[in-house]
Amino acid sequence: MNYQLLLLDIDGTLRPEGCAQVPRENAEAVCAVQRAGVRIAIATGRGRTGIGKGLLRSIRPDYWLCAGGAQLLDRQGNDLEIHRFTPEEMYALVDFFEDYELPLRFTFHDANYAYTGYETFIRREKAKNLNNNIRDGEDQDHHLVEMPFGAFGFAPRDRAEAFRQKYGYLGLHFLYSYPGSDGCDILKKGIDKGYGLRALARLAGLDPAACVAVGDGDNDAAMLQAAGLGVAMGNASAAAKAAAGQIGPDAAPCGVAQLCRQLWPEAF
């Protein structure tokens, strides 16, 4: 198959756990594949604003699939498609997370605003070298500037079930990254990275079968399944591996570089 678009998750895939940046070897390999004519997309739960300068080193993607599929952008960072929360959806999340004193942040174009639990976000993100551009939003007023298009919270799974029981009619779903983790993307009905891949392929004039997707977490599973070739890193979750067509090397120390050389040897 002549694959024409490579979609890459960041954390746990391009950027192994513990690394402050994408390893140089990974960045150089992705750039080599791009020079060979394959288009590159970053596919992440982060909003575009949460991908800081220098994180990707020399990688300059052709497309961005951000906020778990809710924000699609072109090379210049212009929105191609965006899916915002309604006021009812946003207020339900804020009320619920406040009631249970759980951390919750929303993604906007300029930053991620923690409406509850700002200090918890800063502490936990520092421990994982995430630097996700989080601001103190506990005044809870930034949605008056624009409605958010991404949400992330720390919630035990029984709390997620309690939310579904109370607000199931809204269709929101809590998508956890890994088994045992309490960190979850909160997405609108029908939105995930699989949706984002299909939408991005359509916008790029491609068949999803011409796409390679690479990821490691439960939140990558839909994308891996939607791609012509889904590759789960060797360190990936069981759900990601089950959805993938191929198991790749571990993310560390530079598994994406190894994978690029295997799939596109002509680029090297």
Automatic annotation (TrEMBL):
GO cellular component, one term: cytosol
Gene Ontology molecular function, alphabetical: magnesium ion binding; phosphatase activity
Pfam families recorded: Hydrolase_3 (PF08282)
UniProt keyword annotation of Plastid present: no
PROSITE patterns for the chain: COF_2
Domain of life: Bacteria
Keywords for this protein: Hydrolase
Annotated PANTHER family: HAD SUPERFAMILY HYDROLASE-LIKE, TYPE 3 (PTHR10000:SF8), PHOSPHOSERINE PHOSPHATASE (PTHR10000)
Annotated protein name in UniProt: Cof-type HAD-IIB family hydrolase
Native source organism of the sequence: Candidatus Gemmiger avistercoris
